[in-house]
Design a protein that fits this description.
It is a single chain. By secondary structure, the protein is mainly alpha-helical. The chain is 76% helix and 3% strand. It contains ten helices and two strands, in the order αααααααββααα. It has a two-stranded antiparallel ribbon. Helix 1 (4-27) runs antiparallel to helix 7.
């Protein structure tokens, strides 16, 4: 279980630091701290994504792609809903124009646009979840659910996994791990929604806990597999060295990236809390 150490460090060091940062930002009404946090995460992840593209044979210019990614995610945090997409679209068009003259420009431009959608666009759903009065607790619930699934799936899959999920892409993932991660997430989600701070009825908590755990487990696993595809294509084990000895930023947030918008849509359209 070589990957157990980074997960333990994430739980006992990374998670308290992240939650403390978010709590301080909410308690003292310092939203710029959230924008800064997302900008730093996007910067590291974007640099790693561009590096993986280069290692895969796609000549993506790392500096310009990272700068545009940062500007896009910051714009979604500090500008209105009408103006922020202008920055994102302008950056995307600028990247496309930059690659037009190259012989492989179509492939390179497509990978750049994919990266902008994958990182700053999907990550910007962090903001509308955090802005409401109870936003800290919404994000806390999401993070706990994703980490619960990831940890449960990893431990059970490592110890008892026999039926591989998709060996050509991720040989260590197993159906036993997926099922265990989902069941653990369902129990945690049910208890969280039943007790505090939302206090739904036992039946409603079970219903929404089941639905949320099902949706998030699927999206979290797809996010993990997508990043595995990126690394497999680049023929590397880790996305980077942002966390020395424990991989890169993408390795730590791959499940969260896909789960984030799904969680927001559920909270917005089903529960109507945001």
């Amino acid at each position: 279980m070589a990957g157990f150490v980074p997960r333990v460090l994430t739980v006992f060091l990374g998670i308290p630091l992240l939650l403390g940062w978010l709590w301080i930002a909410k308690a003292y009404d310092q939203f710029w701290l959230v924008v800064l946090l997302l900008a730093l995460a996007t910067a590291a992840a974007s640099w790693e994504y561009a590096k993986l593209m280069v290692q895969s044979g796609v000549a993506l210019e790392r500096f310009s792609f990272t700068i545009i990614s940062i500007l896009s995610v910051v714009a979604y945090g500090v500008m209105s809903e009408l103006h922020a997409p202008f920055i994102f679209t302008s950056g995307a068009l600028l990247l496309l124009v930059t690659y037009l003259w190259r012989s492989e420009g179509l492939k390179e431009g497509a990978c750049a646009i994919l990266g902008l959608f994958y990182l700053p666009f999907l990550l910007h759903f962090f903001y509308p979840l955090y802005r409401p009065e109870q936003g800290f607790y919404y994000l806390l619930l999401l993070l706990v659910l994703v980490w619960t699934y990831d940890t449960g799936a990893y431990i059970v899959g490592s110890l008892w996994g026999k039926h591989k999920l998709y060996p050509p892409l991720s040989p260590k993932k197993s159906w036993e791990g997926v099922l265990a991660g989902w069941l653990l997430m369902f129990v945690i989600g049910w208890l969280a929604l039943y007790w505090w701070p939302w206090a739904l009825s036992l039946q409603d908590a079970a219903l929404h806990g089941f639905a949320l755990s099902l949706v998030i487990s699927i999206l979290a696993q797809l996010g993990d597999l997508f990043e595995s595809k990126l690394k497999r294509t680049a023929n590397v084990k880790d996305s980077g060295t942002f966390f020395p000895g424990h991989g890169g930023m993408l390795d730590r947030i791959d499940s969260l990236i896909f789960a984030l918008p799904a969680f927001y849509f559920y909270m917005h359209y089903i529960l109507k809390w945001v």
